[in-house]
From TrEMBL:
CDD domains: Thioesterase_II_repeat1 (cd03444), Thioesterase_II_repeat2 (cd03445). This is Acyl-CoA thioesterase 2. The keyword Transcription regulation does not apply. It comes from Microvenator marinus. SUPFAM superfamilies: Thioesterase/thiol ester dehydrase-isomerase (SSF54637). It comes from the Bacteria. Residues 177-283 form the Acyl-CoA thioesterase 2 C-terminal domain. GO terms for biological process: acyl-CoA metabolic process; fatty acid catabolic process. The keyword Transit peptide does not apply. Homotetramer. GO terms for cellular component: cytosol.
Amino acid sequence: MSKVLSELVSLLSLEKIEENLFRGQSQDLGWGRVYGGQVLGQALSAAAQTVSDERHVHSLHAYFLRPGKVDRPIVYDVDRIRDGGSFTTRRVVAIQDGKAIFHVSASFQSREPGFEHQDAMPEGVPSPESLLSDAEIMDEHAAKIPKKILEQRLADRPFEVRLVDEPRDPISPEPSAPERMLWFKTVDKLPDDPALHHYLLAYASDYSFMTTALKPHGVAWLTPGMQVASLDHVMWFHQPFRVDEWLLHVVHSPAASSARGLVRGSVYTRDGVLVASTAQEGLIRPRDPIVLE
């Protein structure tokens, strides 16, 4: 396993402080605050450590309350809301410097037989091998991207990402439909641990998610004067999957208003199985009025 992927797996393997209390370290991705996917993955890890192994997460509903500091650890306080005959419910509060920065409710269930149907995967999606990597696209626009962010994006990373969209200017893109598709997988194989694959999908699901709501407006998250931040995040897990095999995140933004954008997504395996659904509302605030022109 590569060093960066091993470090991410370690980041999601929390230290148990005492019963229902866990501590996780933070990583600096060059954004000045903790990446939302990190807190999602760590909080899910904390919750799962209090649940029997045969039950796996099937849904989570999270709120981002404050920006996380990259130079501080995060404490996760797990509330064992309910252990029922079919479902287990946990609430987790992420705390930094004595303040709640995030909370999530997650529900766990053992797999059981039942009715099944799903939306079909879009047809004609280019294969990931035929597309430029995220790093290659960033390299094309290197002169426009802040140095610290560029260094992080071009360094070794735990995930391979292939954007199906045409490469876009990261500062002043042309307006386009509020849609995005991207392929992603870890750079190396992972252990056969379903819980770990859930944590890593939660981690990856926040990547390039809210920025889909910016596409109709000719701005990007790096556009000067734009403030972009996740407000909440929801996931439903439908079928087993592996994050070390290519997954396609199909994202659409149905609405934006009052400095908020809504995005919804579907995650498919390469052979078209819908394994997860995602949704997020985020702040997309143009702090500089010029951005609205």
